[in-house]
Write a structure and sequence with these properties.
Blueprint (H helix, E strand, L loop, with lengths): L1 H21 L2 H13 L3 H29 L3 H8 L4 H14 L3 H16 L9 H10 L3 H18 L4 H26 L5 H8 L8 H14 L6 H6 L8 H29 L10 H11 L5 H33 L5 H21 L14 H28 L2 H8 L10 H26 L3 H21 L1
The protein binds tryptophan.
């Protein structure tokens, strides 16, 4: 009896940690605006296809590799084959780059808690302009970013404190409940029909190679895949856990939140006559506008929403910082505090550049884009998908099939009827599909220089990373 309770406890803990990493700004901030910029329904269909064929399979592969080796990303690959160490290193680099802009948006969420509370967001007409003015201000968003960063650093420096886990257990369900409420309000607004059509009636005439690349990148970003986070979490999982089933649960939760965010945003957006292609400001404009129309309770809900968003961002950001930190502790023998503060200091630099690139430094570009976009595009248009590709190739071609079957069936104790399907997906279909999407997308994307730079960096790592790890 007691043992069963313990098992459940640890399983729930794992699912919460993994879902806490997956559910973040990617679902609520990034998914809606990416869908908006890429034509809505058609993008979402392609996204769902990628999530439930590629995403879930790669997640299963990461969990299996992690649990089999009981090692975190770099170590797990190194233990199997030294030539593949660079895939782990690429993951650490991706985490560091995502951490270069994630706290900027985390800071916006914090700022919007206070703005909601103070009633500044109570007048719908001023909300769109207020966002633009806020993020391009040279000082204000920096202070919020620093606050978010400080929270992130403090928690990771202490190890993952019980506080954030507890907060997550309350605030994540609250976020979910608020999204359901928002979605209901949104679809029942007069004029919501156009938004529902936008979401559910796919317009394939807008689909190009770039749409596929955006959907693939979004799938990896949202599921926290392609850089060894799930691999690392898998390494802490008990031998009696059902890996494919866990992958399915985490993937479904993550997708549900994204779809809810879409349902909350688009119907309201059309009802209020806003533009679906508004870009990065979408959530920060549409959600406060919905609340501003809700009367006295609006500011209360708005405050709760941004608290929950900030917490979702924080739990994801923690998993990212932990990845980089673990590398410096495990592979470079560094002390935890030293590692975290060192990385934190560099994050102050990268995030300041990212934040300023939206305002004061908007004229400065590297390879054709500002710093914010540089970190963003480099990771979710190239590194994550290629990371996923390399992990698939490694698992499919460099690991023993029967070992994998044993790992995924817990040595034959549970059944995994789709094993052969999964194996062939990982070995053949996913590497080919990702290569295809990546090549077509990279050719058609406007930032060719940036893409080539990213690929060159991966090749460089592949050649030199034996020295790095
Ligand atoms: N999945 C998170 C989100 O949706 C972001 C994130 C956390 C992430 N850890 C990651 C993305 C690892 C890629 C890889 O916001």
């Amino acid at each position: 009896m007691q043992q069963q309770r313990e098992n459940w406890g640890s399983r729930l803990g794992f699912i919460m940690a993994a879902a806490g990493s997956a559910v973040g700004l990617g679902n609520i901030w990034r998914f809606p605006y990416t869908a908006g910029e890429n034509g809505g329904g058609a993008f979402i269909l392609i996204y769902l296809g990628f999530v439930f064929v590629i995403g879930i399979s790669v997640m299963t592969a990461e969990l299996a590799l992690g649990r089999k080796t009981s090692l975190a990303a770099v170590g797990a690959l190194k233990s199997q084959n030294r030539n593949w160490t660079f895939v782990g290193v690429l993951g650490v680099l991706s985490a560091f780059l995502i951490l270069g802009f994630y706290p900027v948006v985390g800071g916006w969420s914090l700022a919007y808690i206070v703005k909601s509370l103070s009633g500044i967001l109570a007048t719908p007409d001023t909300i769109p302009d207020a966002f633009g003015i806020f993020i391009s201000n040279p000082v204000e968003p920096l202070l919020w970013m620093l606050l978010f960063l400080a929270m992130n650093i403090t928690i990771v420096a202490k190890g993952i404190a019980a506080g954030i886990e507890k907060a997550g257990k309350v605030l994540m369900p609250m976020l979910f409940a608020l999204l359901v409420l928002l979605a209901i309000r949104s679809v029942t607004l007069p004029g919501a029909g156009a938004g529902i059509d936008f979401l559910l009636k796919p317009d394939f005439s807008k689909v190009t190679a770039t749409t596929f690349l955006a959907a693939l990148g979004q799938a990896f970003f949202s599921l926290s895949l392609g850089m060894g986070i799930m691999l690392t979490y898998g390494s802490y999982l008990g031998k009696d856990q059902n890996l494919p089933q866990n992958a399915f649960i985490i993937t479904s939760m993550d997708t549900l939140v994204a779809i809810l965010a879409g349902l909350a945003i688009f119907p309201a957006l059309f009802a209020f006559g806003l533009e679906p292609t508004a870009g990065a400001g979408l959530v920060f404009v549409v959600v406060p506008t919905i609340f501003a129309h809700m009367g006295v309770l609006g500011p209360v809900f708005s405050t709760l929403f941004f608290i929950a968003l900030a917490v979702a961002a924080l739990t994801s950001s923690i998993s990212l910082l932990e990845t980089v930190t673990a590398y410096f502790i495990d592979e470079r023998g560094m002390d935890r505090k030293k590692a975290v503060y060192g990385i934190g200091a560099s994050m102050v630099v990268t995030n300041t550049l990212a934040s300023l690139s939206l305002g004061a430094m908007s004229g400065v570009s590297i390879l054709g884009v500002g710093f914010f976009d540089f970190f963003d595009i480099l990771t979710d248009k190239i590194f994550l998908a290629i990371g996923g590709l390399l992990i698939s190739v490694f698992v499919g071609w460099f690991m023993n099939k029967e070992d994998l079957r044993d790992e995924l069936t817990n040595q034959g104790k549970i059944s995994f009827g789709l094993f052969n399907v999964w194996y062939n997906l990982i070995k053949y279909v996913i590497p080919i599909a990702i290569s295809f999407v990546a090549v077509a997308g990279i050719i058609s994307v406007t930032q060719t220089g940036l893409m080539l730079f990213g690929l060159a960096l991966i090749v460089f790592l592949a050649i030199f990373s034996k020295k790095l790890a």
